[in-house]
Amino acid sequence: MAASASSASLQLSSPSTTATWLRHRPLGLSSLSLRHHQPRRLVVLSMDAKPTILVSEKLGEAGLNLLKEFANVDCSYNLSPEELCTKISLCDALIVRSGTKVNRDVFEASAGRLKVVGRAGVGIDNVDLAAATEHGCLVVNAPTANTVAAAEHGIALLTAMARNIAQADASVKAGKWERNKYVGVSLVGKTLAVMGFGKVGSEVARRAKGLGMHVIAHDPYAPADRAHAIGVELVSFDVAISISDFISLHMPLTAATSKILNDENFAKMKKGVRIINVARGGVIDEEALVKAIDAGIVAQAALDVFTVEPPPKDSKLVQHENVIATPHLGASTMEAQEGVAIEIAEAVVGALKGELAATAVNAPMVPAQVLTELKPYVTLGEKLGRLAVQLVAGGDGVKSVKVTYASARAPDDLDTRLLRAMITKGLIEPISSVFVNLVNADFTAKQRGLRITEERIILDGSPENPLESVQVQIANVESKFASAISDSGEVTVEGRVKDGIPHLTKVGSFEVDVSLEGSLILCRQVDQPGMIGKVGSILGEENVNVSFMSVGRIAPRKQAVMAIGVDEEPSKQSLKRIGEISAVEEFVYLKL
Ligand SMILES: NC(=O)c1ccc[n+]([C@@H]2O[C@H](COP(=O)([O-])OP(=O)(O)OC[C@H]3O[C@@H](n4cnc5c(N)ncnc54)[C@H](O)[C@@H]3O)[C@@H](O)[C@H]2O)c1
Ligand SMILES: O=C(O)[C@H](O)COP(=O)(O)O
């Protein structure tokens, strides 16, 4: 008889995840279950329990108010990189726009405290995503609220450039009246190439069509039917740049798009082409653009974004008379900034509360309604992982875990990434000091050499629930609770969600039914009358509340496993007394 409170020191090895799919019938359940009380929850917040959120660039008032309801908010603008690194170690979340470089130094300086970086806008090229992921820091953005503002700014630049508005305005203000100098070009009937047919690009295309332009687009990843729906033809990169009178850039800055407009590609363009950039400065080789303007290939350029922001005062590009420039104003409308601020505040507060984020950039992005549906299963997965690893006694360490999902849903209708991540969290956190979340789960498993294979059992029946059951098995280990080893030799726990609450339904080969709240005592005993009463009264004497009890047995009066859910942690003395009950053969106390 052995009692053990929680963890063992284990080594995890041999990374990777694999998946297989099988077809089975639903599994039956036959266990005796007694519900005692609804578990009570006691939440105690200390005076300084509020998280701290650093806002390093100007954010709309409505968003700030939302943040302040939940956290201490430190609005510190124009921080130097050193100041940011100093402050960040005291912050749980950071909200930035495009002006703050959130590099590896920032994550290292946070020493694990920084849990969320919120990008109040779309482009996340100023955040080191690899470093964020390695540090388990979630990055969320606000991808929709500034789309229209950016598209409108693109159209504003297009029309202003075509009619020399900026230069003519400066000339009039300088006391001149140069009507012949500022003759423009018309837009109607001209060809516009939209490079990057995403949210902003498609809104620009829609508006340009309204101006009577012929719009084509290049985007290797955009669906043709979305383009056709607004009367835009998708073409190759070379066709787009070589036949167009105007080229408007709307792709993200990535390794593939960096300096995509360079000497070679400017040489392919139609003489007199006009360029608009409200995407990112880095997609244009700025030196090559100056040369192309001087060579007469590019007649004019209208730029909102630059490789270095702000650009140097003596920038040849900015100073060029055929260039108009704005200081990264694409998202800067009152409406967009209020929208972005609310969008990012909600995402950051949600993430700090531990909710799954729908706008996560470095974690699986799952639509909000799917997240809501999966929530209890995600909790189930984490708790099964926690239970399984606490049941391990020794062996060569936890190296190989198999997760089996039983579901009536079609394989492509069940996203298991969230579940796998939370099972991984449950498996790793009780035996290490590592903080595991959706962001770094796969990375951490790989680093620790934990191999997780996933198997899918396709059930017949109604696919109303995403999952019927989840089973977690750890191979090649011994257990501190021998009954947790299944007939096939693995530490095995299985659970399902009932009425929105995760339940443990199987331990080893024994069927039980206990809600996974509070903590758990598992006892193997010889089935006989009075056992529930004996254990219950030992716990009752200590005022430990039993939330659930369930007995799974091979046959009446044979071996049985009793699962007891408790709200409070029993003392070592009580656990010892349970172990001393004569019919109890082994027992274990597990923290959920
Ligand atoms: N100036 C501003 O203030 C401002 C405001 C909003 C957005 N932006 C920038 O505009 C860009 C687009 O934003 P969005 O919200 O439309 O993003 P989005 O993700 O909706 O669209 C980007 C599109 O670019 C496409 N793309 C990726 N690689 C490409 C390539 N090599 N060639 C062509 N297309 C490619 C993608 O398939 C996608 O459809 C981003 O760079 C964003 O940072 C700037
Ligand atoms: O990517 C974006 O959302 C835009 O570039 C806006 O950037 P900003 O928030 O710094 O204005």
TrEMBL record:
This is D-3-phosphoglycerate dehydrogenase. Its EC number is 1.1.1.95. It catalyses: (2R)-3-phosphoglycerate + NAD(+) = 3-phosphooxypyruvate + NADH + H(+). One of its GO terms (biological process) is L-serine biosynthetic process. It is found in: Plastid, Chloroplast. GO terms for cellular component: chloroplast. GO terms for molecular function: NAD binding; phosphoglycerate dehydrogenase activity. CDD domains: ACT_3PGDH-xct, PGDH_4. Belongs to the D-isomer specific 2-hydroxyacid dehydrogenase family.
